[in-house]
Amino acid sequence: MNTNNMSRMLATRCILLTLLLNTVCSYKVLKVYEADEPMNFETVKGCPEEAEILHCKAAPKPTTSATTARQKSTTTTPAPVPPSVQPCLKRTKAGIIFLLDASSSIGPSNWKKQVKFASDVTEGFNVGQDDVRFGTVIFNSDPKKIFDLNVYFNHTSLSKALLDIKYPFLSGTKTYKGLQFILDDKMFSSASGGRPDANDIVIVMTDGKSDNTKLTVETAQRLKDQYITLIAVGIGDQVNEIELTTIANDPSYYSKANDFANLDFIKRDLVKMTCDNI
């Protein structure tokens, strides 16, 4: 035990002893202690506990130099780093449509994270007129097409188009309407940039459950019946995972991020499962 700690223990014992004394004696003892003077018989003369107090010498009060706090060793844990994305090296034709939740629960800040994530995902593929093409639809209470498969054929223009999508500030999570729109608008048709020898994929991203699970599941099945592969991405703790694993072609075609800030941690898996289907 170092000297400073011993002094603290002695000082504490002295003060505790004074609490047993009468008011006058307590005052005398404390006064000596505060003055850093030695405790002697004259100090405690007439006190009921004088004999015991004489065994306790007033410890000097700690000074700044003597009581420099020992620095606690702190270990900084490195922030987790998202796994690196393995690009899809397949040189094959595919049409991939993002169906992005644009409901009021997203908010403008998370919306930027979502479209940035979509843009980053496209970097994992060979984008081109004869390779992988991307289209995008957003949905809330109603769907809205942003662009078809036959518009952007390079990463630069595609990324800019995704990042430039404005958040609509509208409510509703009618996922089934977004899925039905892809069918009704014939987004995989030749007129919209689809190709008969290309694999057709829809990536659904949402942070909540749809307004009508039954219609969402039924509509998803209609896309599957046309040999369209559905991949689902859930974000946060408000999603209906049963719904999302059901609308996906297989439960393994579902990925979940804890929140929008952690989307990058599922990017590698999403690129891989999409690549496996083209």
Task: Summarize the helices and strands and which ones pair or pack.
Layout: H1 3-18, H2 23-34, H3 41-44, H4 50-54, E1 94-101, H5 107-122, E2 132-139, E3 143-147, H6 155-163, H7 175-184, E4 199-206, H8 213-225, E5 228-235, H9 241-247, E6 254-257, H10 267-275
Parallel strand pairs: 1-2, 1-4, 4-5, 5-6
Antiparallel strand pairs: 2-3
Helix pairs in contact: 1-2, 5-6, 5-10, 7-8
Describe the 3D structure.
The protein has 278 residues and is α/β, with parallel strands linked by helices. Helices cover 36% and strands 15% of the residues. It contains 10 helices and 6 strands, in the order H-H-H-H-E-H-E-E-H-H-E-H-E-H-E-H. The protein has helices at 3-18, 23-34, 41-44, 50-54, 107-122, 155-163, 175-184, 213-225, 241-247, 267-275; strands at residues 94-101, 132-139, 143-147, 199-206, 228-235, 254-257. A hairpin with a 3-residue loop joins strand 2 (132-139) and strand 3. Helix 1 packs antiparallel against helix 2 (23-34) and helix 7 (175-184) packs parallel to helix 8.
